[in-house]
Amino acid sequence: MIKRVAVIGGGIAGMEAAGLLASRGYDVLLVEKEQDLGGNVAKWDRLFPSKTPASDIVNKIKLGLSPSIKVLTNRTVTRMIRNNDNFALLLSDETLEKVDAILVTTGFQVFDALRKEEYGYGIYDNVITSVDLERMFASKKVLCKNGKEPKCVAFIHCVGSRDEKVNNHYCSRVCCITAVKQAIEMKELYPTADVYCFYMDLRMFGRYYEDFYHDAQAKYSVSFVRGRLSEAGETHDNKIVLKAEDTLIGKPLKVTVDMLVLMTGMESPDTTENLSACLELEQGNDRFITPADPYIHNNCTHRRGIFVAGACTAPKNIPETLADARSAVVAIEDYLFTYTD
Amino acid sequence: MINFGYNINKSSRIDLDKDLNIAKKIVKIEPSFRTCIGCGCCTSTCSANNFTVFNLRKIQLQINRGELQSIRKEVEKCMLCGKCQMICPRGINTRNIILAIFKVID
Quick check: B39 and A228 CB within 8 A? Predict the structure, then answer.
């Protein structure tokens, strides 16, 4: 009998895994809580470090989804009933789906910048997040609230990451390189603008990331200031005044900018708590799902027949997420091959 | 010995081989003293340093490196307002650190 796999989460990890499972002859069910597939990546304009349009990647992965896959959008999993090695999943529309294995690919949510009130998001007109800026880049309209071109822009790293005050003590990893990418794109758009990046450590871990950083300095004259923003204020003409310490000089610093971009980090989605409870999964102190072990069984969970892939277990970039999705397919295939129903 | 008027300058480099006991004593009183990532939020938000130079990030680093020459004079500038504690992304108990420095350094 054909084995049936449920993939929960229709972002790039879920789509990649669903496509590969279907092409290996499994009956696949893909559950997505939003109206469209694609997740966070579909909301992005261009990707680091190659500036490839995100839609290219999403569309390529979508091409791998065969028509045999049952795609259920606008739905979530509300309950799981285990019967030996089979699962019955109750969905939010009250339908019941029987499966032999479950793959969780619920990804991440972007940190809500309203929680860092001292940075003025939602209070001052010209404070935006990296997600807002991607939307602006996509619409080819990067302007201040008053419709004018920004002459001075600052990017703030680590917003909602490495911060005990918002209960996110971990590094979100991709914001550093995203800031470098967006700073370069800003300079391409407005070559005479002053662009600053306020960082604590620049974590350029991927291939060509360091080159991208070097380009930002050498080709685009982006200024890097080592210091974390402590507070932002607004002037009478809606500019933003930043207070930080230039920690390499060892002096407090202020700068007035036309636009402030907050590099919001990754969080385990708020829905993880419910999903973990219903699938009996474990969450770490960072609220991401904990795999059976971080090295060899990184796609397995503490529950037999339930697998994980992508950013639901930790912040990951796109190549890592896709590689993780593919390796989960191998783990699921191994599992389904050995078990008898 | 004939004095030619030359002498050897004392080394200005940081010497981690010497006794770093003061830092250890502060850590015992306030363990979060070790967890600074040097972001500078404390210094930029400090109400004491608007007009005078006061840099808690630097003080912390100097103590951890055994550079104690000016510490006593520096920490006296703190007014214990606690703004730095509110902003610290590592949740460091900065007020207790100032009090601990006073306790240990004298």
Answer: yes
What is the domain-level CATH number for residue B98? 1.10.1060.10
* Chain A nearest CA to B45, separation (Å): 6
φ, ψ of residue A300 in degrees (nearest 5): -95, 155
CATH hierarchy code of domain A4-108+268-338: 3.50.50.60
Across A44-62, average pLDDT = 97
Supply the ipTM of this predicted assembly: 0.88
Mutate to test the interface with B, among A199, A200, A230, A249 (most CBs of B within 10 A): A230
- Domain spans in chain A, listed from the N-terminal domain onward: 4-108+268-338, 113-265
Which residues of chain B lie closer than 8 angstroms to A230, CB-CB? 40-41, 44-45, 87
* Residue B72 domain-assigned (yes or no): yes
B62 Cβ contact partners less than 8 Å away, ≥ 6 residues apart: B68, B70, B71
What is the mean predicted confidence (pLDDT) over A322-340? Answer: 92
pTM, two decimal places: 0.94
**Out of B38, B43, B91, closest to residue A164 by CB:** B91
Neighbour tally for A294: CB within 10 Å: 10
Residue B43 lies in a domain: yes
Residue B99 domain flag? yes
Q: Domain spanning A113-265: which superfamily?
A: FAD/NAD(P)-binding domain (3.50.50.60)
Quote the number of domains for chain B: 1
Contact between B39 and A250 using a beta-carbon 8 Å cutoff: no
A338 burial level (CB within 10 Å; 0-12, 13-18, 19+): exposed
Compute the 3-state secondary structure of chain B and give helix, strand, coil in percent, each to the nearest 5.
50, 0, 50
Q: Residue with structure tokens 């091409």? A: A63
Which residue numbers in chain B have pLDDT < 50?
A: none
For A252, the closest of B37, B44, B91 (CB atoms) is B44
A244 touches chain B (CB under 8 A): yes
* B51 within a domain of the structure (yes/no): yes
Which residue range(s) make up the domain with B71? Answer: 21-105
Looking at residue A163, the DSSP 8-state letter turns out to be B
**Of the candidates A200, A250, A252, which has its C-beta nearest B37's C-beta?**
A200
Quickly tell me which residue has 């680093």 as its tokens. Answer: B61
Q: How far apart are the first and last CA of chain A?
A: 9
pLDDT, tens digit, 9 for 90 and up, residues A175-199: 999 999 999 999 999 999 999 999 9
Please check whether residue B57 touches A, CB under 8 A.
yes
Quick one: pLDDT at residue A339?
64
